[in-house]
Specification:
By secondary structure, the protein is mainly beta. It contains three helices and 33 strands. The protein has helices at residues 12-27, 291-295, 342-352, and strands at 2-4, 7-9, 31-35, 39-43, 50-55, 66-68, 74-76, 90-94, 99-103, 107-113, 116-122, 125-128, 135-147, 150-163, 171-177, 181-182, 194-198, 207-214, 221-231, 234-239, 246-251, 256-261, 276-281, 284-290, 304-311, 317-324, 357-362, 369-374, 376-381, 387-391, 394-398, 405-411, 418-420. Strands 10, 11, 12, 13, 14, 15 and 16 form a seven-stranded antiparallel β-sheet that branches. A four-stranded antiparallel β-sheet has the order 5-4-3-33, with no helix packed on it. Strands 6-7-8-9 form a four-stranded antiparallel β-sheet, with no helix packed on it. The chain starts with a strand and ends with a strand. The model is unreliable at 1-9 and 21-26 (pLDDT under 50).
């Protein structure tokens, strides 16, 4: 707690704790489900009755590339079937009433330079805004020098900007430039930095997180993370205490963040390091999930991790899905440097019979568990008391406080088909 001139100034997280229920009550949640091959159906969150449906492009065969915000706006960005192929030049956007195709602004130019070739490339990713008034755009723009058909060097700059819903009136928000990098293996992504980004599922609001990283040849390297925030109409960035490979949830303009550190395994191995998930609040980090401490799986090539995690509306609880790289009944091999341990192997096999599972814990005391639901996948907090989960491929509302369930008749295969906004 901070005191200035005799006035108590509470921590940001404390203020959020007081305001969260009021803010939640004003917005509520909306629920959509993608139904193959081309329907988005909205359901009532209390009765689970279908309310309305929207037809989406036939090209949308899976939910990948699909976005929906609380306003009911829908954006679909097709992804190429081949890794090195150029994406489609246009994307589909529905503003809530009508749909249109918008230009994505792809750029790829090749120019002869001496004995090599200069290649300029930019693949902007468009995203919905939380307020439904704008589109946000993120891109890694690269200038490569190729020699003898190999990448020789690259200069990369991450850029973020905002437009109106038609893609016009561009407003620059952020730029993160990297120094020129020599592509030592002949492939720039293996040795040179670029930026990844995260923002809440409901769309970009008044903050987002950028992480500088190197994809790598045998493992990724995460260097720095920056929190971009909007205040009084201006955007500014501040460096976070450490690099964040995976942000799972964040509230209060990034004042409270749930982050995961994934396994560093590569080259066919799944369990080379310790998966962890932590809560960062008021500059302090608290471990929520520790793979090795919980499962003691050092010797075997099975990794346990948090698939997703989210804070309750009042910030008092955290719900998460715990998953594994193996399934119950599968053969389990020793790790790269593991030694046989029959007790450990039996413990791992028993744990696998419950996964995936949803766990609800206290945000202030992670050791205090409110619920553990085997064979379930978390979608998110449906309201201030209930989480929405998938069990037996059906959506179920569950109250961690009293164990009450409300089972729907909505069938889904996994959480990517469900949009809780």
């Amino acid at each position: 707690m901070k005191i200035k001139s005799g006035i108590w100034t509470p921590p940001v997280a404390f203020v959020l704790l007081l305001l969260a229920p009021l803010l939640y009550a004003q917005t509520g949640k909306r629920l959509w489900v993608f139904t193959a091959p081309d329907q988005i159906v909205e359901y009532d969150t209390v009765t689970f009755a279908a309310k309305q449906s929207t037809k989406v492009p036939a090209a949308l065969k899976t939910p990948h590339g699909l976005q929906i915000n609380h306003r009911g706006q829908i954006l679909f960005t097709p992804t190429p079937s081949e890794p090195d192929a150029m994406p489609e030049p246009k994307f589909w956007f529905r503003n809530g009433q009508s749909a249109t195709m918008l230009d994505r602004g792809l750029e790829r130019k090749r120019t002869a330079v001496g004995s090599g070739t200069s290649v300029t490339e930019s693949v902007p990713f468009p995203f919905l805004s939380a307020d439904g008034e704008h589109l946000f755009w993120f891109t890694n723009q690269s200038h490569k020098l190729e020699r003898e058909n190999l990448d020789f060097s690259v200069t990369t700059a991450f850029r973020a900007w905002r437009t109106d819903l038609a893609g016009g009136q561009r407003e620059e928000l952020a730029e993160l430039a990297f120094s020129e990098c020599r592509c030592e293996t002949g492939t720039c992504s293996e040795t040179c930095p670029e930026a990844s980004f995260w923002f809440p599922d409901d769309g970009v609001g008044d903050f987002f997180v950028i992480t500088q990283w190197i994809p790598g040849q045998i493992g990724s390297v995460y260097q720095d993370s920056f929190l971009y925030q909007k205040a009084e109409g201006k955007w500014s960035a501040k460096k976070l205490p450490h690099a964040m490979p995976r942000v799972l949830d964040a509230v209060g303009k990034g004042a409270v963040i749930i982050e995961a550190v994934p396994d560093a395994g590569c080259c066919g191995w799944e369990n080379e390091s310790n998966d962890q998930t932590s809560l960062l609040r008021d500059g302090k980090s608290v471990v929520l999930f520790n793979e090795r401490a919980r499962y003691g799986n050092n010797n075997y090539d099975v990794s346990f991790f948090t698939r997703n995690a989210t804070l309750s509306p009042d910030l008092s609880l955290i719900a998460m899905t715990i998953s594994s790289t193996a399934r119950a009944g599968e053969e389990i091999r020793l790790g790269d440097s593991g030694t046989s341990n029959l007790q450990e192997l039996a413990r791992i096999r028993k744990a696998l019979t419950e996964l995936p599972a949803v766990e609800v814990i206290s945000a202030s005391d992670p050791g205090k568990r409110s619920a553990f639901l085997p064979h379930a996948i978390l979608v998110g907090w449906l309201n201030e008391k209930e989480i929405l989960i998938i069990q037996d491929q059906v959506l179920v509302a569950f109250n961690p406080a009293n164990g009450a369930r409300r089972k729907s008749e909505i069938k889904v295969s996994d959480e990517t088909q469900v949009f809780l906004r």
